[in-house]
Write the structure tokens for this entry.
Amino acid sequence: MKKIGRTLGVVAAAASLAALGSAPAHAAGDVYQGTGWRISTHHGIQSLSPDPYVIRLVKPTADDKLTPAQNKAAEAQLRTLLKKSAAQLTSITGTKFTVSDAYHSPETACSSAERHVIVVGLRYRPFDGKPGMSRAWPCSASGNRSAWGGWIWMDSEYWMPDRKLEPWILANAVTHEVGHSIGLNHPNVDGPDADKTADPYECVTNSSKDTPVMCSPNGGYGRGKGGSVTRAKQHGGQYTPWDIEGLKALKANFTR
Ligand SMILES: [Zn+2]
């Protein structure tokens, strides 16, 4: 309940600023959601800190059901994709994100999670045993409600030879989970079917059939219905303009 109280408090503050006519561009509406983006206020996150964040990998083990060779390949690919996500986040938000070469032990609770560290590992079906699903556990700073860090388990199945994901879909999946870890939520909304439910894949789209990479269960450039594989390949792992708006709002929220 505390969380809700704080959230309402900040919304009210933003609204009164708007009334005074001194609001920044984002505050014209809700600072926690806009077209194609939404902030994870249900996880207690309202903003992104200007202090740097570090991404660290958990050393893979046989528990993830991959062979040592598969684990090695998965780790190398994951590291490359995480670096791409980190570089985008740095350039979009101005907060520095890096991927460390050092391993980290698995995080298990926000109460003991290290500040501004995002721990990423491989696990077999980490999302309640559901096939093909990865999951992020975002934490928030109890004082100012900025993204604290947290952890991500990527489903090791993606690296099993008979279940391999297309590389651009894998890249989008990594970008998506990293987005969750710092406070982006799914921006799904009721779409063309107008059944009053935000269904899977039901997100804003454009004439190029792009959809936010944060769309649940996944999205990205050319990943909307009828999108082109060529376009999806070209932009695999990239935050779309909708996600970028959300990331910028997260950062702007830190000072408003
Ligand atoms: Zn998601």
Q: What stands out?
A: Confidence is low (pLDDT under 50) at residues 1-29.
